[in-house]
Write a sequence for this structure.
């Protein structure tokens, strides 16, 4: 077997094993450890691994642990700001909402990276991704158009790109 | 120690309930489907997070605490994905009120 194929095979096996371990751990946390039930857990984790590899093929892109930790620490704060912002608007007798749409030209390639970014944006204050065109134009619904949301989206995307070492950019937009 | 844990539980769960109430008020008062989705994805998520945070000190063991955290993560993931699917459907001419 050529060296590159052998290397790819080992990357694939390692990633599959990691996914299997993660699913089994999730199953054990949710159902609890019991020898009699373990066979079901192993089978469920194996099926989940197969399905996940079919839906989300293995690649050798690596996530920077430092950037991931930074992101995970920011998320609860962002969630607090977003929740407090919506609560304030909902409970204000004047109902200060000024909804509208903006388009954000994302540099992220179509795939898991872009989907993860959309999921994170849906938890951010005032933004709700609605759809994304093949070209990378993301339609975002905003709760208050008077807020500087376009700049916020650019900053968030720059932060998100730090997660993947070397980034995962759209070939047309960022070369 | 128990008093501190109980105080944290009462404070966090009460705050969580407040945000659930605010999310529900938003759901009733906001003008259309997409703005209502903001109320559900932001205020209710925060409310649920605070309730999980408040319940953590009451978990009898680490496994139960971990289960709470995993349930919270799954709800976050489901909420973030489902809200976008509903938003996409609503913007394509689905029910707007």
């Amino acid at each position: 077997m050529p060296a590159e194929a052998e290397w790819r095979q080992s990357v694939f096996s390692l990633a599959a094993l990691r996914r299997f371990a993660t699913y089994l751990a999730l199953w054990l946390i949710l159902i609890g450890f019991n020898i009699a039930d373990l066979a079901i857990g192993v089978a469920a984790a194996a099926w989940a691994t197969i399905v996940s590899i079919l839906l989300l093929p293995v690649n050798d892109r690596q996530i920077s642990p430092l950037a991931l930790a930074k992101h995970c620490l920011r998320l609860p704060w962002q969630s607090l700001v977003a929740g407090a912002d919506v609560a304030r608007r909902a409970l204000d007798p004047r109902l200060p909402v000024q909804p509208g749409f903006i388009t954000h030209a994302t540099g992220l390639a179509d795939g898991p990276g872009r989907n993860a970014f959309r999921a994170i944006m849906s938890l951010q204050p005032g933004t709700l991704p609605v759809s994304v065109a093949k070209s990378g134009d993301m339609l975002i619904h905003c709760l208050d158009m008077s807020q500087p949301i376009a700049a916020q989206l650019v900053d968030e995307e720059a932060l998100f790109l730090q997660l993947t070492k070397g980034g995962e950019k759209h070939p047309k937009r960022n070369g | 120690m128990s008093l501190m844990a109980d105080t944290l539980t009462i404070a966090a769960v009460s705050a969580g309930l407040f945000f659930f109430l605010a999310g529900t008020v938003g759901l009733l008062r906001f003008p259309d489907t997409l703005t209502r989705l903001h109320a559900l994805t932001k205020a209710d998520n925060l409310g649920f997070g605070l309730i999980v945070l408040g319940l953590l000190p009451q978990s009898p063991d680490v496994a139960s605490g971990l289960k709470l955290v995993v349930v919270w993560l799954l709800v976050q993931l489901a909420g973030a994905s489902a809200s976008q699917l509903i938003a996409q459907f609503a913007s394509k001419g689905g029910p707007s009120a």
